[in-house]
């Protein structure tokens, strides 16, 4: 069969992506090293290295005699990936704040900035766009990188997102807020959109407790419940981006909705406050139920307050039902509790583990995330880097864009 031009170009892109993955963070490599790492032929490796050098991804070091590609006295050609050749931006748009991280091409964070999002979803679209502008500018300034160094921006949103990056929801908030269009129009950046829980799953497998785990559920579990699911290392979206959405919990006995750990910890603690006015909880909130926070409930339970312990037992029982139902459906090896409540939720794991066998025949291992509030932005960085790697021959550092396109 005669190979067509499009298929040749696709193979070349795949090979370039494999080369970048092998070189990122690996230090100085020779052609022989890259052949071993990728399984590609010498001719292919050298050809792609030459192109990646031209595009600014690789630096070729001065020739030296030595091991590796030694051929009839000619020294090996040595290459190194340029981590600072460009940058990517990861943004998490939450209900009350926006977090942005700038990272280099090795995925090393260069800055992280968080700004409040006034009045949550009631903010007009133009004002939301201005907040995005300010946080992006501040993050880039603190990272010490230029606007034209950004090759891709990934944005996490609390809504189903299709494989094509389209928000599929009837929520008025997202109907009126064209995130991709606004950022792309104002800055000319390539903008990717993804569900926040899906990005949390990418982050956890990349930098968190789930490294090396192929069958994984990461659950954002603070005020609301959302899940990102990997099966055999592949992020699942479903037909319209709704894979991992937990709306079915509305109809699950003992659960009833998608509210999360922090929500119910506070709600049930307020009920307990009325029944136990002299409790540790009462002291922590100075007798004001409206001042109660999830952190206060966990702190009171850690101090042995019986009413707070009872509240967390109820929360653990509810989460065992949630995790049990999800585990029965997708059978993960590991479930990670993530989001703002993750560190506190670690205290719930023994009680959840005890009850899980009552709700699933295949109980997974449970962990709490260590990535903190930045988990969605970290996943957005991974998402943007994946895009850049897959399109390495089409996107490249702005400093070389003229010569590369000529």
From TrEMBL:
Pfam families: ROK. The keyword rRNA-binding does not apply. The keyword Transferase applies. One of its GO terms (molecular function) is kinase activity. It comes from the Bacteria. CDD domains: ASKHA_ATPase_ROK. Keywords: Kinase, Transferase. Belongs to the ROK (NagC/XylR) family. This is Sugar kinase of the NBD/HSP70 family, may contain an N-terminal HTH domain.
């Amino acid at each position: 069969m005669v190979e067509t031009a499009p298929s040749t170009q696709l193979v070349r892109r795949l090979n370039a992506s494999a080369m970048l993955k092998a070189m990122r963070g690996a230090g100085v490599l020779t052609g022989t090293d890259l052949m071993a790492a990728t399984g590609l032929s010498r001719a292919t490796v050298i050809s792609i290295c030459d192109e990646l050098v031209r595009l600014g991804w690789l630096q070729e070091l001065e020739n030296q005699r030595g091991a590796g590609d030694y051929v009839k006295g000619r020294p090996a050609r040595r290459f190194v990936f340029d981590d600072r050749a460009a940058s990517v931006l990861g943004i998490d748009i939450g209900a009350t704040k926006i977090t942005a991280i700038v990272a280099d091409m090795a995925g090393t964070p260069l800055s992280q900035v968080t700004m409040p999002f006034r009045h949550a979803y009631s903010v007009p679209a133009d004002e939301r766009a201005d907040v995005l502008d300010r946080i992006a500018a501040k993050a880039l300034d603190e990272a010490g990188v230029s606007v034209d160094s950004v090759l891709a921006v990934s944005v996490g949103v609390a809504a189903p997102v299709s494989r094509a990056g389209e928000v599929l929801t009837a929520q008025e908030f997202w109907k009126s807020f064209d995130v991709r269009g606004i950022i792309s129009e104002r800055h000319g950046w390539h903008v990717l959109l993804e569900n926040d829980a899906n990005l949390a799953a990418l982050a956890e497998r990349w930098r968190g407790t789930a490294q090396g785990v192929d069958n994984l559920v990461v659950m954002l579990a603070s005020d609301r419940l959302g899940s990102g699911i990997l099966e055999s290392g592949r992020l699942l979206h479903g037909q319209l981006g709704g894979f991992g959405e937990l709306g079915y919990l509305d109809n699950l006995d003992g659960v009833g909705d998608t509210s999360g750990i922090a929500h119910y910890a506070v709600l049930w603690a307020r009920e307990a406050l009325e029944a136990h006015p002299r409790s540790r909880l009462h002291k922590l909130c100075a007798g004001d139920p409206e001042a109660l926070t999830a952190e206060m409930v966990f702190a009171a339970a850690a101090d042995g307050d019986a009413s707070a312990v009872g509240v967390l037992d109820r929360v653990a029982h509810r989460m065992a039902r949630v995790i049990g139902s999800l585990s029965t459906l997708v059978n993960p090896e590991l479930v990670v509790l993530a989001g703002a409540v993750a560190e506190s939720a670690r205290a719930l794991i023994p009680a959840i583990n005890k009850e899980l066998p009552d709700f699933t025949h295949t109980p997974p291992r449970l962990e709490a995330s260590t990535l903190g509030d930045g988990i969605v932005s970290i996943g957005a960085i991974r998402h943007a880097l994946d895009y850049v790697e897959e399109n390495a021959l089409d996107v490249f550092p702005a400093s070389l864009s003229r010569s590369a396109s000529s």
